[in-house]
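Attaching the record inline, Q. Sequence:
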Amino acid sequence: MAQDTVALIKDRLSIVEIVSPYVKLTRAGKSLRGLCPFHKEKTPSFHVSPERGTWHCFGCGEGGDGFSFIERVEGVDFKGALKILAEKAGVAVEYNADSRENHSRLERLRAAMGRASEWYAGTFPGSLGEAYAKKRGLTGDTIRNWRLGFAPDGWRTLLEALTAEEFSIQELLAAGLIKEADGKPGTYYDRFRNRLLFPIRDTAGRVVAFTGRALAEDDLAKYLNSPETELYHKSDILFGMDAAKEAIRARDFTMLVEGQMDVLLAHQAGFKNAVALSGTALSERHLSLMKRYSENLMLVLDADAAGLSATAKSAALALRAGLRVKAAQLPQGKDPADLISEDPKEFLRSVSDAKPVVEFFLSSLSSQEGDSHRLLRAAEDIVLPLLAAIPSPMEREHFVQITARVLGLSDEAVRESLRRLPRTADTASTARIAVPRTPAARPAHEVRSQMLLAVLHAYPDTPLANRVKSEYLRITEAHQLPPDVLPEPALFEAERVFGEDPLEDAADELLHAFEEAVIREAYQESVADLRKAEAAGDYAAAENAQRACARISARLAALEH
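Structure, as predicted:
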């Protein structure tokens, strides 16, 4: 694709034209501002700079250009955003020879999947698939809206139908619609036979795969999923996300249920923020997809032992990714689909009574274990890893106190157990999960650093900027801070904090606060080193840490005076 296409779109469309259909903007100095579309807020913290063609939210820390905004708000990848903006700008998307060939091949696969979905939907009326769907309580509207289909019990019915429409065998193989017979090269047959089919769509609503539910009692595979293809990567896709994303934004939480039937019945009952996995465990990429729309997750999985185990694993991964996680308690032996079909009000009560996942497991374990010793052992196995996965020290401490109270222990006993918890591969993976850093989560000196850099950028070559620059360099060198760069938030910070005429005493105050923040952070790190050394019995390290605390405390006292 020629870079000229992107440049032409940016020339024809201003950032304001791109954002304003989604956000009501009002003038605020050089910028425009409004309520962020990506998280709930009452005070506008979403800023748009027409001059730079960028946007940034001080509430959730997200930002970028027009393309990244469309990716986030529409839930599409860059190519999807390019297509949307190209149509809006009246620009034809151009591809080079290699890109054109790849684009054409992928479009053929998408066309094959779309045609297969329509073909399966056409065979649905009057089929065993329709009888099963209605038996489970699905309405005609739900069946039509989700385009459920039926795969007949023939070996080559779909294959013959699509090859007659000039789709090649290789295209159908690449799309995962047919298979080659074992030991019979050149012999092909339909992957799905005698099954109720659920189309799986990407966030743009394009069919990329299917899940087939067996209709024969003797079928060994109850559910059969499409294989991984160029269109379908199961660790990237959440079933129902294309239909759920707006409700997730509006309700500010994702409801994760067990399977496709759970999703359909949940949406039918009004819980339109429900999604499900498709034949795989919860992945970091799934969590990243969820966080586009909300940082809150509710797990509504089966109430059997396997469902509770899946809840614990999913919760730990989600907590490490920075999501706030709740879990709903379903009646024993019921899955979401069963409960919604039998008693929608009971399902609503379960969802309304959902608890933070640590409290959920404390309650579940307490009700299951009458013996206090076995309860403690179960809590060590399940609850402690969840506590360790919580990235916020304040939130972790809150749940440490709740855990101690439920188990009849002291807070310190729970903290000591946490300190002794072995670092597992899952715990170590925390650092690999990319979590957007909000302003509140950034170190204090980093926030001050960005604001100082904003002064330099907004007012270059002025006596004020030169003095700020000199002092900033002195402080960063004295405290051995890494050289900083000028991030996009700093540019907005200059306009938001300093306005048109920054006062010199404001810069003085900022410099002072910056140095104080750096020293306080260094002091906290030294105290942590001291406690760690004392706990390990390393008296030499403890003495060094004690001296460092004294030095830093003296520097802080001098600064305060």
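The first strand starts at residue 26 and ends at 28. The radius of gyration is 28 Å.

More tomorrow.
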